[in-house]
Amino acid sequence: MPLPTSGIAVPGQPLGTTAEFLPGTGIHIRKDGQLSANIVGRIHISPTTTPPTLSLLSSPQDTTNSATIVNPATLLPQVGSTVLCRVTRTNPRQANVSIFALDVVPPKGTVVVVDGAVAAATSTSIPTGDTFPGVIRVQDVRATEKDKVRIASSFKPGDIVRAAVISLGDQSNYYLSTGRNELGVVVARTDSGDLLYPKSWKEMICSRTGIVEERKVAKPI
Amino acid sequence: MADRRRVVGPTDGTTPPVFSPSPSSTSLPPSKRVCRDRGPQDLRQIFLKTSLTPPAVGSSFLELPSPPTYSNSSTLKLTCSVFGPRALPHSAPFFPQARLSCELKFAPFASPLKRRGYVRDHTERDLSVQLATALQRSILLEKYPKSGIDVFVTVLDCEGEAGAVTGVSSFHAGGGKGGGGWGGGGVDVGLLGVLAGAITCASAAIADAGIECLDLVSGGVSALVRKPGGGGDDDAMGQEMEDELVVVQDPSPEEHAPGDIVAACAVGYMAAREELTEVWMRGVVETSIDTEDKTEDNLDRMMDGAIMAAAQARRVLNEGVAERLLFAMNMAKHEMEIT
């Protein structure tokens, strides 16, 4: 099949051999060593590596430095990725959450591009097209003194939690962990609807009423 | 207060609507029938556009040119929406790959002859399964673990008997295998055209959604047609009959007299990888496995014709999926020039 004009590749199109290029995003290697396109995208050759890296960019804009292109609609939680989720219900063994945003960490020196627009130069949260069910088990709430953890004093329904995906989990839930300092509750409210602010690593305080509630608090940035 | 539990008619009565009798394409006199004015290897022009359904992640629309108005015949119009990858329902078991689910539905008004029901019938179920088979191999399902990709194809308009509820049962391959006597029946190629169009349309929508795939899949149809004026001789024997059968690409059921199409074949073809993902054949065709010269074999000729049709449709598909990005790039360039 002839190469189309204007540097746009369509899925299946042969783009070169493994001897000529390293495969970047949107590229797969066929059995015969041919690099082929996975997606519709602009052909971009980065000469920083030897051989140069060939990648496909689905954003129309020409970005001077290389970009991490994110398509929110096809974003899925992966093991190791950091997510934002909302607690839907709790019981003594686990907290059920629904994942609504994923953190995308671009490699050093690149920017994140969402829907053709540059979103951020550092880590950024991208809302997913759909929510995914997740669960934080009691042994995954924190890294130390796991036997003393109580779900009721860590999360309440409605809290927004930053967590890391530790497993794709069972048939329905992703398994999440908050066992790091920077992970835990980031937004919480009292029963009356007032915002809570972090007081210590396990307490949050309401500025209006002074009520102190227990949470597994994420280290403020 | 009005009775909300049942539909109450108007109190003063109405006149029942009187419609003119439905024109049947098969009962049209030969002069009214659309004539195929293109060569046996020429396809009709295909209109393909992506991203026309805003709520879907990816979508596409495919249309073939409308026939002349005097013929009362119809054309093929398809839309496809792709959703996903998205979370699977709670009851689905764990699966390390994406699950592809395809649903092909005829709109109630799709058929020019008969209004269809809303409930999925066996034709739609059959076509959905075949569409899923055709697309399954092309998508990199392992890139999207534990998720579902849903493909919905709606047939807005279709040709021939495909739209009629009779669907598959309209299969009457006339004649026996013993050579001669092809008379009677004939194969309705409408459904094959719908499948080939649906494959092309769905592949465009999947590429539009940004779902990673190995290759695009395009659909193609070809048919073995009795050469006009040649067939129908009662005393013609098998050997002579073969010479009278021509392979026609992209056949339209409106363009051939009923019974002229002896066999037809639809394929899903990944042109860049030279792989077939789907083959559907209808009708009776003679084949000889031990023939040295494969160009003489009707089955091979018909399959090759369908693959060539698919390869031509692929060129439209390539242009169609790249169009949106090309447009966005031109817009970005234009904005740069203004500022």
Question: What do you see in this structure?
Answer:
The complex is a heterodimer of chains A (221) and B (339). Chain A is an all-beta fold and 221 residues long. Chain A folds into 2 domains: 8-57, RNA polymerase II/Efflux pump adaptor protein, barrel-sandwich hybrid domain (OB fold (Dihydrolipoamide Acetyltransferase, E2P)); 81-214, OB fold (Dihydrolipoamide Acetyltransferase, E2P), CATH 2.40.50.140. Chain A is 0% helix and 46% strand. Chain A contains no helices and 19 strands. Chain A has strands at 8-9, 14-17, 22-23, 27-29, 34-37, 41-46, 53-57, 67-70, 82-91, 94-104, 111-114, 117-120, 124-137, 160-167, 174-177, 184-187, 196-200, 203-206, 212-214. Chain A has a 5-stranded mixed beta barrel. In chain A, β6 and β7 (53-57) form a beta hairpin. Residues 1-5 of chain A have low confidence and may be disordered. Chain B has one domain (47-163, 185-228, 243-338): Ribosomal Protein S5, domain 2 (2-Layer Sandwich). In chain B, 24% of the residues lie in helices and 22% in strands. Chain B has helices at 122-136, 190-208, 238-243, 298-338; strands at 47-50, 58-63, 77-87, 99-106, 147-157, 218-226, 245-249, 261-270, 275-283. Residues 163-184 and 230-242 of chain B have low confidence and may be disordered. Classes of the chains: A mainly beta (221), B alpha+beta (339). The interface between A and B is large, with 38 and 43 residues. Chain B: One of its GO terms (cellular component) is cytoplasmic exosome (RNase complex). Chain B: Belongs to the RNase PH family. Chain B: It is found in: Cytoplasm; Nucleus. Chain B: Its main location: cytoplasm.
